[in-house]
Design goal:
By secondary structure, the chain is mainly beta. It has helices at about 5-15, 20-25, 120-140, and strands at about 40-45, 50-55, 60, 60-65, 70-75, 80-90, 95-100, 110, 160-165, 170, 175, 180-185, 190-195, 200-205, 210-215, 220-230, 230, 240, 245, 260-265, 270. The strands form 5 sheets. Strands 9, 12, 14, 15, 16, 18, 20 and 21 form an 8-stranded antiparallel β-sheet that branches. Strands 3-2-6-7 form a 4-stranded antiparallel β-sheet, with no helix packed on it. The structure holds zinc ion (ZN). The site of zinc ion has 5 residues, from loops.
Length: about 280
């Protein structure tokens, strides 16, 4: 089909008539999904300087430009459906903005692992608690260098998604924390790459997570890579999108070689799929 000049002009006019902010939001990542484990994109409007936004005391990521700012809010998996709110300060004024969290039920997954990885020995329990305190301090990272929007990420490794975000997990018959990331199955040694520019804030070998790297993308947006067989970076390194950070492994509590990929916003693990182009 060929379009006449008049049809082309009309098509262009229809596109141009869409307000820029809406056009930008339509294809923008992360996708808006106001459910537990999802992300709320809350429009803050124009302002000559980047507004500040908080969820209680937690600083939130604010992206955009002077023409239209957006708060990108991570919603905890444990959030109750119903009204939620954020606090915003812009141009010397404070206001509260409401949004609604819809219910979402995630499926259940039953897994079998070595008994010592479910009922921890006192030594392993002590190690896990030390490591958890360390991880929590990493998760508090909030660098002022906000990432460029949109936050389109590319998958850090290509492979089959073997377990998706939010699964309610039962290890050896015992209920445990829900799955707070995306698992991507890939052969041992497959390169894992940064999905977005970011700075390495932590690397280590942890009881559950195994070989681990955390990247800071700014504004409280962090990503997590677990069960790595090798790590090629160290804290402080600045990685460009697509740069190699490690290799797929099965270290820590893993049933086979795969990457566990986590995305953190305002100290909350959210669904990485929302950051990938559909
Ligand atoms: Zn996982």
């Amino acid at each position: 089909m060929t379009l006449s000049r008049r049809q082309l002009l009309l098509a262009f006019a229809a596109t141009a008539a869409v307000p820029c902010a809406r056009a930008a939001a339509a294809g923008a990542l992360p996708r808006d999904a106001r459910v537990p484990g999802g992300v709320a994109r809350i429009a803050l409007g124009p302002a000559s300087e980047r507004p500040r936004a908080q969820d209680d005391a937690l600083p939130l990521l604010v992206a955009g430009s002077t023409a239209a700012w957006t708060a990108i809010v991570g919603i905890p998996l444990a959030a109750r459906p119903g009204r939620a709110q954020i606090q915003v300060q812009a141009a010397g004024e404070s206001r509260t903005l409401d949004y609604t969290v819809r219910a979402k039920s995630y499926p259940q997954q039953r897994l079998r692992v070595a008994p010592g990885q479910v009922d921890l020995s006192p030594e392993d329990q002590a190690r896990h608690e030390r490591e958890r305190a360390h991880q929590l301090s990493v998760m508090e990272t909030f660098s002022l260098r906000a990432p460029e929007s949109p936050f389109a990420m590319s998958a850090p490794v290509s492979g089959r998604r073997s377990s998706s975000f939010g699964l309610r997990r039962v290890f050896n018959g015992q209920a445990r924390a829900p799955h707070a990331g995306m698992d991507i199955a890939a052969a041992l040694g497959t390169p894992v790459t940064a999905p977005l520019e970011g700075r390495v804030v932590d690397t280590g070998d942890y009881f559950f997570n195994g070989g681990t790297v955390w990247l800071d993308h700014g504004g409280g947006l962090l990503t997590l890579y677990c069960h790595l067989s090798e790590i090629f970076v160290q804290a402080g390194d600045l990685l460009r999108a697509g740069e190699r950070l490690g290799a797929v492994g099965a270290t820590g509590r893993a049933t086979g070689p795969h990457l566990h990929w986590g995305v953190l916003l305002n100290r909350t693990m959210v669904d990485p799929a929302l950051f990938l182009a559909a």
